[in-house]
Amino acid sequence: MKPALRLSPLFLAAVMAGCTLGPDFQRPDTPAPQHWAALQGEAAASQPQAEPLQLRWWETFNDPRLSALIQRVADNNLDLQMASARLLQSRALRNTVAADQTPSVAANASYSRARNSAEGLSDPSGNAGHSAFNLWQGDLVAGWELDLWGRVRRQVEAADATVQVAENDRRSVLLALLAETAGNYIQLRAVQHTLEVTRDNLKVAEHSLKLSQDRQAEGVATRLDVAQASAQVASIQARLPSLEARRDDLINALSLLAAQPPRSLQAELLPAAQLPAPQQSFAIGLPSELAERRPDIRKAQARLHAATASIGVAKADFYPSIRLSGNVGFQAMQLADFGAWDSRRFAFGPQLSLPIFEGGRLKGTLELREAQQQEAALNYRKVVLNAWHEIDDVLRLYNASQLRRDHLAEAVRQNRIALETAQRQYVEGAVDFLNVLSVQGALLASEEQWIDSSAAVSQALVGLYKALGGGWQAFDEQPQHSHG
């Protein structure tokens, strides 16, 4: 009977080792629509298809310089490197938490020269405090907390979820950088295109000025015509400096994203190139895949997981904790005796800690963790709902941007016809020069609007890919460090 009684605590500990308090995390059920929302109203030429998303979406623009620039930003951007450093910190913190699952072992050694009080406690030297003595000690100390209620396991689970939060935070930074790089590049090409159009219009205005000067010399035109033509030339020339400054600002913005000094990309990006344009049709994946792609949804899920595991930690604090500890070593007053068999010493035994009265601290902590878990669950729902709204908004914006661009293209075509007609009629004396200036101003304005609208189409497509959560997978090389 006695042996059975002695074994029962060990048996109980083995059984209880599998007990883990608190709710187990379950991925939230967020029903996704079977199909993307149908477009209402007039449909533009380029439309998305529910096919597997091309993760390297910037390559659909067929611009090697843009692809190379994005690769450089992904390799060198400082914000991304800081996010990687935060991820390493999170992993290191997880390792410190997981260390509580294994026994701790430490070695201690010491030497002291001491003298005890003749009136105090017993003197190990045996001289009743009348002389000093040496004390040599060496110990091997071990300790291990029995995780009977799963407190440590829940802490590790929460730490693992926190690592996932840091991973997806890094992916969010990367996704934002991809979109910002592509957006700045598109704006740069649009500004360069606007510069070309403005210079072309300047040539037209200078031709009109010469025409009015020639007609004045012939006595057909007045000084007013020449003054108006000169004002038109100066007005167009005034547009150039601000456009050139905007161009240089965008080049510098791209340099900063790539962690390069100012003007370091001037030679590469200063030559004008075509504005990146979307393809006639492109794939945007399936609605059911969205939660796996968007880093913010994955991050919200990981935070909910961490909050759920923390409830188990709070519940385990209500129960007793048992820690096994022991030490073995040597102690001697003479160095020659240190390490001898008679100088050995050891101590083994469990330590039991049981909370009796905490003044409501444990209950308050549990209520806090449960409330935090509820907030995390609501935040997850909000993030998912926001994602669907964002995609729906960008899809409509992309369609509307195309329609606006196409209508402006027609306006440009008609304004060019109008300018040619006005110039011819002015030479024939059928209209005054004010008509020529008015039509030329309308042409320049419509051309600039058309360029801006073309850039807006490409920008909307970039925003759509960002909303879909695509692109970070192509560069998701997690920073690594040794685990110990």
TrEMBL record:
It holds the Pfam family OEP. The keyword S-adenosyl-L-methionine does not apply. Keywords: Cell outer membrane, Lipoprotein, Membrane, Palmitate, Transmembrane, Transmembrane beta strand. It is found in: Cell outer membrane. Gene3D superfamilies: Outer membrane efflux proteins (OEP). The keyword Magnesium does not apply. It is a lipid-anchor. PROSITE patterns: PROKAR_LIPOPROTEIN (PS51257). Belongs to the outer membrane factor (OMF) (TC 1.B.17) family. This is Efflux transporter outer membrane subunit. It comes from Pseudomonas promysalinigenes. The lineage of its organism: Bacteria, Pseudomonadati, Pseudomonadota, Gammaproteobacteria, Pseudomonadales.
